[in-house]
Amino acid sequence: MTVKHPSGTSNLMDNISIWDAYIEDATNGYRQRRYFFYLSGCELPDAYLIYEIATDKLTLFIPPVEPDEVIWSGLPMSPEEAKAKYDVDDCKTTKEVNPHLASESESAQSTVYAIQEQVSDEITFLSYKDKEFSLLKPAIEYSRVTKSDYEIALIRKANVISTDAHVNVMKAAAKAKNECELEAVFLKSCVERNAKNQAYHSIVAAGENGATLHYVHNADSIQNQNLLLLDAGCEVDCYASDITRTFPIKGDFTEESLAIYKIVLDMQKQCIDALKAGVVWDSIHELAHKIAIKGLLDLGILKGDADAIFKARTSVAFFPHGLGHYLGMDTHDTGGKANYADKDSMFRYLRVRGALPARSVITVEPGIYFCRFIIEPYLKDSEQSKFIDEKVLEKYWSVGGVRIEGECAG
């Protein structure tokens, strides 16, 4: 299967493409290369994949039986079993890869497409006229943005399992002595539902730890903090979930934490309602900032004119990250066209830019944070500090951070 545009017509004609799977040492765990899995559905390590564009034929090559390995790992899948299980036209052993490539009758006039550094040294393309290592990867990334019904179903399944795990953490939070306990609750809930892999390292942040966007320490004690920010999601058949919830550990919000929670929830609801195929994600991100500005003005944390605050980008002090990202086989999935060199602070960390295509899956994860390292430079800047009331702000440091995240499929 080569990369195909949504119309179904190939953009790489009369040539051949090859990929290999990847295995790490068993002590480090194994994770299939996503480009390989996308084209094959095959999770086996040390495998290869060839797509012959002219004949529309997809051939999988899997390791042969090695007697010395059977004692450790048992009998591997046979080519016949692999052909029946995976979305391929033919399956052979890896010993046949190079003979297969050399036997192509038109190889001398053809171009072979591959991904740089994803073809093993044992593979030879000597019989091919041209070797192209730059086009295939971005073409796959382009295709991965739009999801099939099956892909969306896998993401939903991962979200259902992760939702159960989030609920179990909420039930256990009141009696927890530290963040580690709650991370363990989440992991147990996923594993016992046969989701053994996590889509990313969990964020289990109590109190002011929630102000650290990618907090991964997950080991602080839980004593008198009001909120817990839980950002965690499992993976099902190589497809990720990504959920964040922020909730009161003992069941009751403080006045300040509830006020911030309501603003973030309003940000998420309005942004989700504004989503549709073709909408420009940058404009949804702007909408989130405008809602945050209104809410913080109502609380008195911000002061002055809303339009002037938006223009000055003062709200970035409280909402410094992008609104969301594509989700799929990777948590931060491909195709977002981010521009981290953007000089506009409101868009610098926005992982998706431009119009959202139909059947894309994107997260909507607004947040408001009270991080001293981010906000204090704004307080020292005369052009920014005039929009922030430090006396009112002082009451909100203990809130830490509030983020609410879910996914939408267009």
In short:
The protein has 410 residues and is of the alpha+beta class. It contains 13 helices and 16 strands.
Describe this structure in words.
- This protein has a six-stranded mixed beta sheet with strand order 4-3-2-1-5-6. Strands 7-10-11 form a three-stranded antiparallel beta sheet.
- The protein is an alpha+beta fold.
- A hairpin with a 4-residue loop joins strand 2 and strand 3.
- The longest helix is centred in the middle third of the chain and has 25 residues.
- The chain is built from 13 helices and 16 strands.
- The N terminus is likely disordered.
- The chain is elongated, with a radius of gyration of 25 Å.
Which helices and strands occur, and which strands form pairs?
Elements: E1 16-20, H1 34-40, E2 48-52, E3 57-62, H2 67-73, H3 79-85, E4 90-93, H4 97-102, E5 111-113, E6 130-132, H5 136-144, H6 149-173, H7 179-191, E7 197-198, E8 203-206, E9 227-232, E10 234-236, E11 239-240, E12 243-248, H8 255-273, H9 281-299, H10 306-312, E13 361-364, E14 367-369, H11 372-379, H12 382-385, H13 390-393, E15 401-403, E16 406-409
Parallel strand pairs: 1-5, 3-4, 5-6
Antiparallel strand pairs: 1-2, 2-3, 7-10, 8-9, 9-12, 10-11, 13-16, 14-15
Q: What's the order of the H and E elements?
A: EHEEHHEHEEHHHEEEEEEHHHEEHHHEE
Q: Determine the structural class based on helices, strands and strand pairing.
A: alpha+beta
Number of helices: 13
Strand content: 15-25%
Which short descriptors sum up this protein?
410 residues, alpha+beta, 6-stranded mixed β-sheet, disordered N terminus
